[in-house]
Amino acid sequence: MIISVKEIKKFLICVAIPLLTGFLSSMIAVLLSQTSFQIQYAQLIKPDFAPSAGLFSIIWPILYILMGISAYIIRSSNKSTQKINDAIFLYYLQLALNFLWSILFFGLGLRFVAFVESVILALVLVIMIYRFYKIDKTAAILNIPYIIWMVFVIFLSYFIWVLNK
Predict the structure, then answer these.
(1) Are 72 and 15 in contact (CB under 8 A)?
(2) Backbone angles phi, psi at 77, to 5 degrees
(3) What is the pLDDT of residue 2?
(4) Which residue has the higher pLDDT, 105 or 80?
């Protein structure tokens, strides 16, 4: 099986979009707060189950790569254009919400708003995974680690907000 240069470019773009989105969100949050994530995170009162700051810089790129691969699979599907467009709309909606979270939580210090936003993000993500599943099961399965992580983020955001009010 020979893969065309066009397909390779499409794949790389699909993977680069979430990675760049996460990077830009981080940069904007740091610019707004004038403080790095590591310093801010260290200064917060956190629940006992809170991971170290370094774990986030490992987990998020992995999740972004999985997101990008799943988007590529959906975009490459031979299902109806409407189904694909609906699924990709949800993909970009969750990506936009993901982009906002770091800005809200770290950049603006709006912990409660970030918590509420993470709940909305998880709901959109569940719907997106369902739509992906209707098109391609593998694309949906690639997002399971992401939804598991988001459930954890919801709990972590809530407890950080409560402990730091």
Answers:
(1) yes
(2) -70, 155
(3) 80
(4) 105
Query: How many Å separate Cα 125 from the centre of its chain?
Result: 9
CATH of segment(s) 5-40+52-163: 1.20.1260
Cα distances (Å, whole numbers) of residue 100 to 5, 22, 79, 142? 33, 10, 31, 22
Q: Which residues of 85-107 are buried (b: 16+ CB within 10 A; e: fewer)?
A: ebbbebbebbbebbbbbbbbbbb
DSSP string, the chain: -PPPHHHHHHHHHHHHHHHHHHHHHHHHHHHHHTS-HHHHHHHS---TTPPPHHHHHHHHHHHHHHHHHHHHHHHT--S-HHHHHHHHHHHHHHHHHHHHHHIIIIIS--HHHHHHHHHHHHHHHHHHHHHHHHH-HHHHHTTHHHHHHHHHHHHHHHHHHHHT-
Contact 146, 125 (CB under 8 A): yes
Separation between Cα atoms, residue 51 and residue 45, nearest integer Å: 12
Mean pLDDT of 83-104: 98
Mean pLDDT of the chain: 96
pLDDT digits (tens, 9 = 90+) for 21-67: 999 999 999 999 999 888 999 999 999 999 999 999 999 999 999 99
